[in-house]
Amino acid sequence: MATPAAPETDGAKQAKIVFVVPEQTPPAVRFVLGRRRGWTEWNAEVHGVDEWNFQWRSGRFKPSEYRDVREEQRLNHFPRSALITRKDLLLRVLRKMKAVHGEVYAFHPDSYLLPTEYTKFINTFTRLKPQRHGTTASLQG
Fold first, then answer.
1. What is the pTM of this model?
2. Can you tell me which residues the record assigns to a coiled coil (predicted)?
């Protein structure tokens, strides 16, 4: 299978991108990848089993799928990306970084892992003075 060609200056056509999606993929995804981008959807009758450039999936890929992907193939997820895309895991990572590297990682607001840290969450916010919002006589002209 040919890899996607780099843009040519002499007007030659680029190789067509072939994408793979599961059966239950929403029609909007197929539309964007196929008609909107002009890519070709993988078809078992036309393409070989590894004859694709991009694979889209809403769920995770198995570690073996990351390992077996060829250089010219791309997946729409990165391994272990949940560490930064799930709020609870991101907080754990930030806390570990602060423990290792100190105050340089103290840039995020107070955060809590609920329900585990519910009591800590309630205690923090009951200690805070209520903020007054709206206009006061001293602010009016």
1. 0.58
2. none
Query: Do strands 18-20 and 40-41 pair parallel, antiparallel, or not at all (unpaired)?
Result: parallel
Neighbours of 60 (CB within 10 A): 13
Distance CA 128, CA 90 (A): 25
pLDDT digits 0-9 by tens, 26-72: 999 999 999 999 999 999 999 999 999 999 998 889 999 999 999 99
- State the Cα–Cα distance between residues 91 and 96, nearest whole angstrom: 9
CA atoms within 13 A on the CB side of 45: 0
Pairing of strands 74-75, 40-41: unpaired
- The strand ranges marked E within the chain are 18-20, 40-41, 54-55, 74-75
